[in-house]
Amino acid sequence: xxxxxxxxxxxxxxxxxxxxxxxxxxxxxxxxxxxxxxxxxxxxxxxxxxxxxxxxxxxxxxxxxxxxxxxxxxxxxxxxxxxxxxxxxxxxxxxxxxxxxxxxxxxxxxxxxxxxxxxxxxxxxxxxxxxxxxxxxxxxxxxxxxxxxxxxxxxxxxxxxxxxxxxxxxxxxxxxxxxxxxxxxxxxxxxxxxxxxxxxxxxxxxxxxxxxxxxxxxxxxxxxxxxxxxxxxxxxxxxxxxxxxxxxxxxxxxxxxxxxxxxxxxxxxxxxxxxxxxxxxxxxxxxxxxxxxxxxxxxxxxxxxxxxxxxxxxxxxxxxx
Amino acid sequence: xxxxxxxxxxxxxxxxxxxxxxxxxxxxxxxxxxxxxxxxxxxxxxxxxxxxxxxxxxxxxxxxxxxxxxxxxxxxxxxxxxxxxxxxxxxxxxxxxxxxxxxxxxxxxxxxxxxxxxxxxxxxxxxxxxxxxxxxxxxxxxxxxxxxxxxxxxxxxxxxxxxxxxxxxxxxxxxxxxxxxxxxxxxxxxxxxxxxxxxxxxxxxxxxxxxxxxxxxxxxxxxxxxxxxxxxxxxxxxxxxxxxxxxxxxxxxxxxxxxxxxxxxxxxxxxxxxxxxxxxxxxxxxxxxxxxxxxxxxxxxxxxxxxxxxxxxxxxxxxxx
Lengths: 321, 321
Hints:
The first copy, chain A, is of the alpha/beta class. Chain A is built from ten helices and 13 strands.
């Protein structure tokens, strides 16, 4: 890791990055060399005030636990679900956080006296995944969580597109007779490989429904085997879309479902391989060799948020893995 | 049209662009102001030698008919189907031209003594469509011809991607139970809206099968109506993929099927509108307002090839519409 993305002309040494999820905040402090100097997880608050407070307390707790002062923090970057206006530092429609519209950067800056920058969580994670996985050139980060979305990173920079829908592959239909999606369409990629859609289709109680599906499929349950196949099929479709439209070199897969580890990776690889069997063109793309899974517990999302924050003083983020 | 893409430090005034198709070459001469000063169409030869000869004779005939000398030609750009190595000026697998592997730029330069540059035809057309339609920012050019492919242009430059498959949306499957594609997969976008696939599914004789399908559909033929719906559905799916992955602002539609004019455009618009009806998310994208059709007979492909040629002396092509 070089310090290209982390240099801070103001002399403050540390960049804090926060991945703000529906239940918890993952916070890291990154030094000028790009090394992670501290990390902690805190519960996320619900609603505008509680979200701001939980973010502020995550930063102060991180400083305390890691042994640095707030004065050492050059910037805080936040990755947060919802529609983010990066320039204004505002987030809208973060429904899982009880937030309708929040001037997050301004509110957090007023609370802590440190510059904040806000980015959509998947885009921030994409930036972090590109840096941590050492992928140069072009890559997509495919997030398989409750929902499905991707972020595209080209030469170390987030690809924004024209209207902020770059990488929204979760809502492309790949089966006109498929399950109804929460978005209103049928057979969206997300209905195949989104954790929320799969848990709903499974319909049985349990804290870890996707793991239950995999275990039941291993035990011979045909419904579970079908849903597991759907997951592999949907993720493979998302990979194909990203390569055949934006032509990224590598697709890095992250998100909650990566807790399944090799059970997930080998299944997606096999689906890509099987999908290419009849097609010399698809075989020539070698898609099964162009995916990689983030390790479970990877700090990519929070690390990417730190890179987003670092861009307050850097015009361009050019991390080198 | 400004002269940004056409300035020629060598003093030669004109840029020639050739769109080399399976049956004919469309040739234009573009002056330093970006205005088209001459245009003609010639038959394309079959096989390496004949392709080179027909290209050379198209340039000399264009010069003769338009009243300029070869010495006035600063560059010739060629858009040609197949796998193009832009740096080497080579084209491989141009099966419709009987070409396996041809050092086209070198051979043509030896014949005419003018610098040549070669580009994939859809990518060249995308560049020309972006310039002629005056689209700034990001756009995709969706070519509906015998096959289906797209080119992406960002800020006036062709988006190449990692391995040359950017915009290959024709071979994304959108229906696992769909027709078998020439590529070996089922339900590819191209099986829905490629002229070759539709003509094959139609299976009746006629020089203009897609027009026949539209006419028969108008007359109440249910098979024709189904195929026409497929065409609209497939083109709409391609538009969705381009916006939800690369997030281009506008999709400009070109290629042979645009001879159908408003019958095509209104149908694709209606399919996009209908596909968004149940989905507030898709409605918010206003896709039906983000497509436009190239006028029939548009010189976009040859004009784009002229821009490609102009890049011999210009490091970047930045046309302004």
